[in-house]
Amino acid sequence: MPSIREAFARVETAALGCLAGLSPAVRRRAPNGLEFLSLCILFSFAVLLVSATPPEKHLSIYSTAANYSLPIVQRQGHDYVGLLELLDPLGTVSAKSDPPRWRIHYNNILGDFTVGKNHARIQGRDADLSAKFLIENGRGLVPLASLGSLLPRFLGGPATLHEESGRLFIGSIATHFTASVALDDPSQLIFHFTSPVNPSVATEPGHLRLTFSREPLTSPASPTLTFGSKTIPSATYSESNGTAQITVSGTVPLMASFSNDGRTITLSPAKSQTSATAVPAPSNPAPQEPAANQSASIPRRYFAIVDASHGGNDRGEALSNTLAEKDVTVAFARRLRQELENRGISTLVLRDSDANLSLDERAFFTNTTHAAVYVALHAASNGHGVRLYTALLPYTSEDDRGPFRSWTTAQQSSITLSQAVAASVATELRKQQIAVRTLTAPLRPLNNIVTAAIAVEVAPSASDLSQLTSPDYQQLITTAVANGIVAIRAQLGAAP
Predict the structure, then answer these.
(1) Dihedral, CA of residue 218, residue 219, residue 221 and residue 225, to nearest 10
(2) Closest C-alpha among 215, 191, 183 to residue 301
(3) DSSP letter string over 419-479?
(4) Which of 174, 157, 162 is nearest to 109 (CA)?
(5) Sorting pLDDT into bands at 50, 70 and 90, what band is 462?
(6) Which domains are present in the chain?
(7) Contact 264, 191 (CB under 8 A)
(8) Which of 96, 331, 356, 404 is disulfide-compatible with 312, CB 3.0–4.6 A?
(9) Non-local CB neighbours of 201 within 8 Å, separated by 6+ positions
């Protein structure tokens, strides 16, 4: 919104422009120049008010049944939505208004609301609301902020609300993505999505914007991504008013192309820009390196992928009455990333929040990022110290053919390197006097990863579970793991 001073300046400019734009004959017919200027000012105020009106707020709902949008209305200083309208696309629903009470049935679940009350009863049990319940023209309005806790009572499953941006995710519906520069052409940026997408594309000097109005796209581990490319240095993820947006910075005009049934978007310099910036070959070109060395010299987006196991609906092992495995693994993952980056190893934490990620999605993100090593983190209450796992691949008599690899045996070509990583990490753990065992197991997604991959399962060194949340113990473990990866870095960097 403009300041008061800015607003009056705009009105003055518009009014004088309005008056100056009239022909002399029209100005002579005006009853009075001052009166006409007053009319111009009133007209300009009206234009200013219209232009300053904020856009209507919407709530975007994403579910397996339907993706749709509802208006958000503001009442008594809070955002509200119609509960019947929200539930209607998801199942069988009916409502009866008998003020001050309002009842709703959804798939045999009864909700009982009362006007002016900040709580309701769902199937006879109390449910808190973040503000008072309202009825308008028979419509039951519930506070937007209460949906995250209210909807699971009706739906029997999770509902994740992004309140600030007006986005609601019902169940494990989110679409995730990775972005990395092409290995053979750093001027190209490739996005991989776990589900088909169809964003609108807009360009402006220095930026290309992908706006996702219908897709349940969620944020990567970091909203700001950097690529080490002079052509496409960075991208940012943001959400607002029911939409998600990826803004890509480019030093040249960019164009987007879609492939893989909408699961892949490639950004590359516009053709006119490519031809304009082409550099002629030198008259005496230097001898080219062997192809293998050329591949190894191409910079990677991330050297290491650290994956905090479980998350979202999947709590993992209940380590105690109050401690879930998913919370311990994300704490270890963040600390391990810091240790690796302190040693100059670029690292991506695959799950840096309480998000739902399937095993296939974890492998998909790792494989499309072209990292050198993948480290999955687990926690356990039984046993002592650390267990290191590499993949136990299923027996198969069929070899991979052509450019395709079997999903269940994708680790085959990297298993020796994975075992070398596990051995190096085990050596560093033993230096810290930590009990360690190296094992093989059919532990997904290890067998789906096409690069070096290990799983690190951390248990207390004794019987005290509080060690798992102790900063000192976490530091001891992650320091050893990071040192083990550094010790074998040269060998990992030479991997295809």
Answers:
(1) 140
(2) 183
(3) HHHHHHHHHHHHHTT--EEEEEE--TTGGG-SSEEEEEEE--SSS-GGGGG-HHHHHHHHH
(4) 157
(5) confident
(6) 4-52 (no CATH), 58-170 (3.30.457.10), 178-271 (2.60.40.3470), 304-396+405-493 (3.40.630.40)
(7) yes
(8) 356
(9) 208, 209, 210, 211, 256
Cβ atoms 364, 445 nearer than 8 A? no
The pTM of this model reads 0.56
Q: pLDDT tens across 35-75, in order?
A: 544 545 555 555 444 445 556 889 999 998 888 999 999 99
- Give the sheet arrangement for strand 243-249, strand by strand: 200-204, 207-212, 243-249, 234-240, 224-226
Alpha-carbon distance of 25 to 198, in angstroms, equals 55
More confident residue, 30 or 443: 443
Q: Which residue has the tokens 């994300």?
A: 330
What token pair was written down for 69? 């949008």
User: Given the structure tokens 């045999």, which residue do they identify?
Assistant: 108
Instruction: Output the CA angle 488-483-459, nearest 5 degrees.
Output: 115
The two tokens of residue 467 are 């060690």
Would you place residue 4 in the very low, low, confident or very high pLDDT band (cuts 50, 70, 90)?
Answer: very low
